[in-house]
Every structure is written in structure tokens, then in C-alpha cells.
Amino acid sequence: MNDVVRNYPFRRATPLEAPAEWDELYDACPVAPIRLVSGDQALLLTRYEDVRQVLSDPRFTRRLDAADAARITSNESGGVFGSDMAVKDIDAGEGHQRWRRLVARSFTARRIAAMRPRVEAMAEHLVDTMLAAGPPRDLLGDVGFPLPVWVICDLLGVPDSDRDRFAYWSDTLLNMTLYSQAEIDAAQAEFAAYFAEHVRAKRANPGEDLLSELIAVADADDGRLTEAEAVITGQGLLVAGHETTSNMIGKMVAMLLHDRARWQALLDDPSLVDGAVEEALRFDADPGVGMPRYLSEDVEVAGRKLPAGTTVLCSTAAANRDAHAFGHADTMDLRRSPNAHLAFGIGPHACLGQALARTELQVVLSVLLRRLPTLALAVPADRLVLREGLIVGGFEEVPVRW
After folding, report:
1. Burial level of 374, CB count in 10 A (0-12/13-18/19+)?
2. Residue 2 phi/psi, 5° resolution?
3. Is residue 193 part of a domain?
4. Largest CB tally within 10 Å, which of 163, 248, 271, 360?
């Protein structure tokens, strides 16, 4: 076993390339010691089967506020991995499963399908606005960011006019090195106060939105959501519902335009859109820091006994490029089937909003192909600027022309 402690996250040669370390680690060191930006050490998993095992095992928890857990970020606490964002009763065990069942009853496929025409109409509107402004434009700023924000705000029943505040609050919660503890604490207090007021208003005067329905279902089942639980739910859905999807829109389009043959294949056969979305999710080399887990008892992974108290980072991106699990793993194949990628996780903490994210990605790609068949990157792919300092990956902007 290679005991070299590598600094993490890894650097990449170009924005769309996978880190060179992945190929080194798959076989030589599948459980690799890493040093995080906090200075703490953890273990990194890169192989598909190991990542799948850990994410599916309830003994690997999200108790990252434990005294001996590694700090993922440079700040002491207060982000998505800190104690201030955790409500113990909805983060583990039966409490977590109860919460997931409540959210799942409101976050239904039927609701998402019913939203699709409105998502399409908004995507068309945003593209209209971008076309009217003329090239070059930032696809991320014009479409990739505003669409998911509008969708999640519509779903939750909050005004998307507050989107700039949401973006700042989200970034502070997803901080790795950008913000000070004082900035995070202040933003988190504002975010919590905003949603506390929103939750009280929804409880008093319910609307047609998901949060109103979630509160009503919980109360009717005599499993009343506390205000703290409802606030954390709203905050979590708002952050998760726009940040990762927004970044993925930019990355997906960049990947497809980087190799013009990919874009042309979709123009020639639009039925490939759904498969292209799945392959973009699998092929994405920059989803962020990964999925951290804290080990509550001794467990064996990859033939190695990991002691209780260990913090493990599951790199779903590395797992999705593991040649042991995917044929021609380093090739973007728009016709790949099956495609059992782990972009949305798996197990007790798998992403509840994955149907919504897929819908948004499919709609954006379909609209862009139809409205802008000549779309192209306005800068070489190696000049795209990565977002730095957050636990999620993505670009600062995606300049395009047509």
C-alpha cells in the first residue's frame, strides 16, 4: 500500500481533464491517505465498488461534527459539514428515514413531470434574452444559473428575485477556502432567519408549493416538523436544488462543445439527449470535493480494516471513471448503456432531487440544440476558469458564441 499523503483536492492539467492521480490510485492505493485544506487527514476512495459500498453502508454516517472527524473545509464550522447546519434528528437513523419519507412524498415524479412545461418555457425565455443580447455571452450567467434558481424557488414558493442573496448564502455554506468564519456565521444567520420567516408564513397560509405540502403532510401524520427541521429542509433543498444543477449545465455544455463531434451527434439524433445527460454526469471530472462519511464502527473496505472514527471521502467522479466498472471509461460515449454512474450518490443519502436535476439538464440541452445549433465555445476549453474555494466544482463562466 502506498502511504504517501497527498494534498487534496487534486489539481488538473486542464479544466476538463481528470486528475492524473486517479489512475495511480485505482489499483495501487484504492484507500489513499490525503491531507485536506484544513490540514486534517482523511482517506480517499476512488474505486467504483468501494465508493458504492461505503455510500450504501449506514455505518458510514454524515456525523462530520464529531470531535475526531476530519474537517473538510478551512473554517472551523458553520458550513454544510458543520454542526450549525445539522439537525441531529433528521441526519441519521430513523429520524433521517422519517425525514426522507416526508420529503419524498412531496418530491414526486408526478410533480416533476407536471413542472416540465414550465421549465421548458423558462428555458426558452432565457435563451430568447441571450439571443437578443447577441454573442458572445456567458451561458452560465444567462441560462445555467437563473434556470435552476427559478425552478427551485417555484417549487418551494419563494421569490426568485432574491436569487443573488441565495447565491451568496449558498456559496458561504459550500465554502472550502473562500470565506472567513465570521462571514459564514453572518450569512448563515441571515439564511436561517429568512427561511424561518418563510416557514412560519407557509404554516399560517399554505400555498401550492412543496414546502407547504411537506409541512401539511408532516402535521397530518402527527410527525410535525419542528421549525428547525423545516428551516433546514428549505435551506437544504434551495442550496442543493440550484447550485449543483447550475454548475452541471455549464460543465455539460462545455464537454459537448469541446469535441464538436459530440454536439453534431446530438443535432443529428436528438433522441440521444437523455443518454448524453447521463454520460455528462458520469464523465464530469469536477463535481467537487466528494461525499465525506464518518465511520461509526470498524469496517473493512478494499481488504483494509478502517477503524471507527475514520473520515472517508468518496470520490464519485473517480468512481465514475473506473475502468473496472465502465468500458472505455475515459471516453465520453453518448450511447453508453447501461450507465449506472454514482453522480447522485446511492444508499440512504442518495439525492432526492435527481429527477428534477435530470429534467432541467434534459430541457436545457434540448432547447439549446433546437434554438442554437451553431453554438460554440467562445474561448478554448483550456481557458475556461474553474470556480475555486468551494466544495462543489464548476466554472466561473462559460463564454459561448453562435
Report:
1. exposed
2. -85, 115
3. yes
4. 360
66 Rama class: left (phi>0) / alpha (psi -120 to 50) / beta: beta
Three-state secondary-structure class, residue 61? strand
Q: Is residue 1 a part of any domain in this protein?
A: no
Q: Which pLDDT does position 321 carry in this prediction? A: 98
List all residues 6 or more positions away from 205 whose beta carbon is below 8 Å from its beta carbon: none
8-state DSSP, 313: E
pLDDT digits (tens, 9 = 90+) for 102-153: 777 767 888 889 999 999 999 999 999 999 999 999 999 999 999 999 999 9
Q: Rounded to an integer, what distance in angstroms lies between the CA atom of residue 185 and that of residue 82?
A: 11
Helices (H), 82-225: 93-106, 109-133, 139, 146-156, 163-173, 181-204, 210-220
Q: Are 114 and 209 in contact (CB under 8 A)?
A: no
The residues pairing with 299 across neighbouring beta strands, listed in sequence order, are 306
Q: At 219, which CATH number?
A: 1.10.630.10
Structural domain count of the chain: 1
Sign of the Cα pseudo-torsion (107, 111, 115, 116, in order) = positive
Residue 160 has pLDDT above 90, yes or no: no
Sign of CA dihedral 226, 228, 229, 233: positive
Helix 354-371 to helix 227-258 angle (10° resolution) is: 40
For 303-354, the pLDDT digits (tens) are 999 999 999 999 999 999 999 999 999 999 999 999 999 999 998 889 988 9
In a domain, 362, yes or no: yes
**C-alpha cell of 284?**
464530469
Can you tell me the distance from the alpha carbon of 267 to that of 372, in angstroms, rounded to the nearest whole number? 10
Q: Is residue 338 part of a domain?
A: yes
Burial class (CB in 10 A: 0-12, 13-18, 19+), 31: buried
190 HSE (CA, 13 A, CB side): 15
Instruction: Return the minimum-mean-pLDDT range out of 91-100, 137-146, 241-250, 377-386.
Output: 91-100
C-alpha dihedral (228, 205, 189, 392), degrees to nearest 10:
80
> What is the SS3 assignment for 374?
coil
What's residue 89's pLDDT?
Answer: 46
User: Are the CB atoms for 212 and 202 separated by under 8 Å?
Assistant: yes
